């Protein structure tokens, strides 16, 4: 059993200006934790506290690529990437190297629930390798307006040709379990923290 996530982001206000990104990730066990079982995964979903390994993370700006790749070790590259979210519909499209479609999404935006600031804060810990050592990076999201649909219907996720769709196909997903759309929120990306030391080969 495994959990796969496909996520599209739109940062309207950011310290490196507006940008968009998308991600394919797989749920993993926390560092120095036992086997990730069903109850661990269910608890993490319920508590909005997940651990993930990101396979692909395209962005639409050079500065976002440099900071994410060089500073955090994320598999980022620059491509055409449109994300539009409003109260009625959520759409996204990631372009491949030829300008065609890598991955696209179109779905009705779920009914939104407004949360006071600080009432619902979700956490995502991602793991990357930087200079031969594993690091964990915490991303906290202050959810202000969001909606969820379990086992969504009429969700149009198109896989074309490209790096992101290749990663998603390699995981052989079976069905969509949950759709989350946040129309308003605040995200804080912490600095990566080492969880291992570089190997001898990496130091040489």
Architecture overview:
- This protein is an alpha+beta fold.
- The strands form two sheets. Strands 1, 2, 3, 7, 8, 9, 11 and 12 form an eight-stranded mixed β-sheet that branches. Strands 4-5-6-10 form a four-stranded antiparallel β-sheet, covered by helices on one side.
- It has helices at residues 38-46, 62-72, 163-170, 200-203, and strands spanning 4-11, 19-27, 49-56, 81-85, 89-95, 101-108, 113-114, 121-130, 133-150, 156-159, 178-189, 193-194.
- A hairpin with a 3-residue loop joins strand 4 (81-85) and strand 5.
- The termini are far apart.
- The chain has one domain (4-115, 145-183).
- The chain has four helices and twelve strands; from the N terminus they run E-E-H-E-H-E-E-E-E-E-E-E-H-E-E-H.
């Amino acid at each position: 059993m495994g959990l796969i996530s496909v996520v599209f982001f739109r940062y309207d206000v950011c310290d490196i200006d507006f940008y968009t990104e998308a991600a394919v990730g797989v749920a993993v066990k926390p560092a120095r934790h036992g086997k990730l079982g069903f109850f661990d995964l269910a608890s993490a979903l319920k508590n909005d506290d997940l651990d993930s390994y990101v396979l692909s993370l395209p962005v639409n700006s050079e500065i976002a690529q440099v900071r994410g790749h060089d500073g955090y070790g994320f598999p980022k590259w620059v491509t055409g990437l449109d994300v539009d979210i409003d109260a009625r519909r959520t759409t996204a499209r990631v372009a491949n190297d030829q300008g065609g479609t890598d991955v696209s999404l179109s779905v009705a935006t779920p009914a939104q629930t407004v949360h006071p600031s600080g009432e619902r804060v979700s956490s995502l810990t991602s793991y990357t390798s930087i200079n031969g050592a594993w690091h964990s990076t915490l991303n906290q999201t202050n959810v202000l307006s969001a909606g969820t649909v379990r086992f969504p219907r009429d969700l149009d996720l198109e896989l074309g040709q490209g790096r992101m769709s290749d990663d998603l196909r390699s995981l052989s997903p079976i069905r969509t379990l949950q759709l989350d759309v946040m129309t308003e929120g605040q995200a804080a990306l912490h600095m990566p923290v080492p969880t291992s030391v570089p190997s001898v080969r990496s130091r040489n």
